[in-house]
Amino acid sequence: MNFDRKKQIRFKNDDDIRLLREVVARNPIKNKNKWTEVAAVLSTPMFVLDARRVRERTNLLIEQHKRENRENLKKSGVDEDVTERTTLLDEIMELKEEEEREKKEEKEKKEKSENLGKEIRKRALECLTPKKDDESDIPKRRYSQTYLVDYLKEKSEMEIATKRTELELRKEELRLQKAQFDLDREERLQRMEVEKQEKIAFMDLLKKLTNNK
DNA sequence: CTAATTAATCGCTCCTTACC
DNA sequence: GGTAAGGAGCGATTAATTAG
User: Fold this and answer.
1) Cα–Cα distance for residue pair A105/A206, rounded to 1 Å
2) Which long-range contacts does A73-76 make (Cβ < 8 Å, 24+ apart)?
3) Is the CB of A4 under 7 A from strand B?
4) Which residues form a coiled coil (predicted)?
5) Which helix (H) or strand (E) holds A10?
6) CA of A108 vs C1' of B18, distance in Å?
7) What pairs with residue A99 in β-bridges?
8) Could you check: is the Cβ of residue A32 within 7 Å of any atom of nucleic acid strand C?
9) Under a CB-based contact definition with an 8 Å cutoff, are residues A82 and A192 in contact?
């Protein structure tokens, strides 16, 4: 028995929607401290939340959403209901994926440039270390200096070249990502619109039927 | 009603980041 | 280098909800 444990706060569907809206609006995936803001916005005296609670609830919802998607797919492609709830969850998942991709890329880039630096330094060092005596017809100092200059030149050229290609690649990637994202969003909105129209048509039909009675 | 299932809380640990 | 601070996730425990 633990007496200092808080009373549990259960999320209702409305609460979930409000939560998901805030998460999409503020993107705490990218700015960790935003979890606090989200919690502050959603908290009322009756419904007290902290950043951790908000984060854990979001994760739980996403887990459930993923599970549902998997199951729908298995049951031979039942389309998910197009509701605000699922739309929001999809968007949050995209935010998460985007963040992950960015982190991975950053890491890879860092490693790459580190390796490049190491390599060049190593080679420069090799050329600076004294050779055996039998090569001494070339003055040591001159010998190493020219090589050092060469390597420095090589180094900066390589860096500029790789940076340029990396930048172009990155730009292209971003463009594609954005295009895909916009496409997805457009598709979802359209689906929602179609559903709304169908609902309206259905209601009209109902009205007609009842009036004609 | 009780048993089973699902969700919330919390302690702990691991990771990253900032600072020395 | 290391280490303090804070975020995040995992798992055990407990509480609430649902099924039977």
Assistant:
1) 55
2) none
3) yes
4) 85-123
5) none
6) 22
7) none
8) yes
9) yes
